[in-house]
Amino acid sequence: MEMTLLEAIRAGLDEAMAADERVFIFGEDVGKRGGVFRVTEGLADKYGEARVMDSPLAESIIVGASIGAACYGLRPVAEIQFADFIWPATNQIVSEAARMRYRSNGVWGCPMVIRAPYGGGIHGALYHSQSIEAFFAHVPGLKVVAPSTPYDAKALIKAAIADPDPVLFLEHKKAYRLIKGEVPEEAYEVPIGKAEVKRAGSDLTIITFGLMLHYALEAAEKLASSAGLQAEVVDLRTIRPLDTATILQSVRKTGKALIIHEDGLTGGIGGEIAALVAEHAFEYLDGPVMRLAGPDIPAMPFAASLEHEYLLSVDDILDKLQAIAAY
């Protein structure tokens, strides 16, 4: 059946809660209100307030209490209302959750999920538009997942809940209701750490995730129509661990690579991927590895005209593809 990205995440949460009574949701307004974006709408009525719990307005408590619950055998799903608000919980995530298995010599895991809506395009300005994947992809012991489609989102939220270690689950806010797709009613799986080629091609490779995947697919179709060139589009799906095998296989086939992300260019995940390609596929390249990303400014502006300039567009991607193809 067809679902939005938001509905697919809710369906995944619902199935995980129905299958395992240890799973509970904890966060600001996740209960009767169903969250600020209504992702958890209806779950409190179905499972009760003991399993869909409203938290104080304190991200460090949301994550800290979830870590404790995970250590006692539960499966918490902590919601950070906006990714921009995750910073008070950074010490809990980085110093505690991500290091639990290492510091205990493998005796303890920390099976918890931290859901965080990220990205721009909803006129959210400074404190409701941030992309945070690069900060947390730096942390060993923490998985970072960012689904792009409803099909992937439903399966990956269930995989994240089942994982024995902490998972940061990023959900693009603009994509919540914008992106729709078919989702099977029967059980299926999408593994964490596995990218997918969403469009096959032979002339160049696009590597991206989240909302940018859909822009990249549209730009690839325009490139095929205008120039007869076929771009292969790789959806990362997981930011850490990266699926280096799929990335390198594609680049070795096409000889050209463009990495796209909404976050700022400097220090973004695109730099890590570019380094991987340069180190392991250099002899296959027919041109420089290129990146297309947000500008290096402190935050996304509030003014609609400036927000439009900040955000990448299909035309921006198409222009970059044409520049790469010229090599």
Distance between the termini: 43 Å
Strand content: 15-25%
How many E-type strands? 14
Structural shape: globular
* Total number of domains: 2
Average pLDDT, all residues: 97
CATH topology of the largest domain: Rossmann fold
Element order: H for helix, E for strand: EHEHEHEHHEHEHEHEEEHEEHEHEHH
Helix content: 25-40%
Structural class: alpha/beta
Unreliable runs:
none
What summary fits the major beta sheet?
7 strands, mixed
Strand order of the largest sheet: 3-2-4-5-7-6-12
What's this model, at a glance?
With 327 residues, this protein is an alpha/beta fold.
Secondary-structure topology with pairs:
Layout (H helix, E strand, L loop, with lengths): L1 E3 H15 L3 E5 L15 H5 L4 E3 L4 H13 L3 E5 L10 H8 L2 H4 L9 E6 L14 H5 L5 E3 L4 H13 L4 E6 L2 H4 L1 E3 L13 E4 L4 E5 L2 H17 L3 E5 L2 E3 L3 H11 L2 E8 L4 H12 L9 E5 L9 H7 L3 H12 L2
Helix pairs in contact: 1-7, 3-4, 9-13, 10-11
Task: Give a structural overview.
The protein is α/β, with parallel strands linked by helices. It contains 13 helices and 14 strands. The protein has two domains: 2-182, Thiamin diphosphate (ThDP)-binding fold, Pyr/PP domains (Rossmann fold); 196-325, Rossmann fold (3-Layer(aba) Sandwich). It has helices spanning 5-19, 43-47, 59-71, 90-97, 100-103, 133-137, 150-162, 175-178, 211-227, 244-254, 269-280, 304-310, 314-325; strands spanning 2-4, 23-27, 52-54, 75-79, 113-118, 143-145, 167-172, 180-182, 196-199, 204-208, 231-235, 238-240, 257-264, 290-294. The strands form three sheets. Strands 3-2-4-5-7-6-12 form a seven-stranded mixed beta sheet, sandwiched between helices. It has a five-stranded mixed beta sheet with strand order 9-11-10-13-14, sandwiched between helices. A two-stranded antiparallel sheet has the order 1-8. The chain is globular and about 60 Å long. The model has no long low-confidence stretch (mean pLDDT 97).
